Request: fold
Amino acid sequence: MSPLKPAPTKAGAALPITGATVVVTCPGRNFVTLKITTADGVYGLGDATLNGREMAVVAYLQDHVCPLLIGKDAHRIEDMWQFLYRGAYWRGGPVGMTAIAAVDVALWDIKAKVAGLPLYQLLGGACREGVTVYGHANGETIADTIAEAKRYQAMGYKAVRLQTGVPGLADTYGVSADKMFYEPAAAGLPQESVWSTNAYMRVVPELFAAAREELGWDIELLHDVHHRLTPIEAGRLGRDLEPFRPFWLEDATPAENQAAFRTIRHHTTTPLAVGEIFSSIWSCKQLIEEQLIDYVRATVVHAGGISHLRKIAALADLYQVRTGCHGATDLSPVSMAAALHFGMSVPNFGLQEYMRHTPETDAVFPHAYSFDQGMLHPGDTPGLGVDLDEDLAAAHPYRRAYLPVNRLEDGTMFNW
Ligand code: KDG
Ligand code: MG
Reply:
């Protein structure tokens, strides 16, 4: 363990970076972690995991970013962000922005450790008692899905995402045998799924009708379309779900074309969430400024770190758009902690996704955050409150894994 708080130095003195290493580990699934060390012995961690393309970020960091960090002042977080973003000339993109995010989060971790404060205190302090989260209930049938949702309700969750098998399809996004620790990436070549919009559009309203009947109205219900619909289909599904008051409908249509969300908005009052694959503010600028969405799901690890996500949240706040950060299992506990410190401190927090990590993952990344009555709290440990057990990490070497791909019933390549 590095000292959490070094001997006091002159305020404003530089804190030179002396080391930057990338740790890849697979305690059941792959994680990439950047560790930045300073002359005082304080170190910070940043998540750099990009599911299915992990090694591209490893190379970006090791070959191009880490050599730039040595000797730089760890305290100059914004300047470092600008240096890496503008200095690459080739701006944006998921690989580069994930690498920048890892540096940014590691530097915030260092700054907060040096200050002796949990990170959210440096971000303006707590705006709320904790970060309300949603869990994932999924099942092959509607009855199985509702039984899972009841399990979450019993655990104290106030919000739950519902995903159910589509009759006639061999497998469906979001449904897995391994309920609590759902992980879509698998070893070997990408698994090929088959998709039917027609069958899907019929089962989701049935799921929500049954869920309201059995779960009541006090729990928030969410659903992820996972980029599968056209704007007009999304408008129809949103309208069909309106009687059941979903908290949000996520990734209803691919969002490269931000203006497409006007069509969905025109047809439904179901709240819309989008953005887990966004790399920067430019991916959601129009969506926010035209109030085409209600929740922006951009997250620390894939959208440039805490510094950049705060800019997205500040823009969103002007337009009554709230945050709804991605928090799937492919975001490591380092990301989860960063999301919690961010979520504690932004005024327009909405809801945080929380897919639990396995005990194997939690052992590699011991952390201070904890779940209680539907909320996560980042804890009061200085910094992010997450560590990395490097010996244990080394015992779980990288294993290549791919996310699935998706085809229509006639074989046409589609969105997964
Ligand atoms: O790696 C892909 C997953 O992060 C993604 O499929 C999970 O859509 C997802 C969600 O909402 O958690
Ligand atoms: Mg999603």
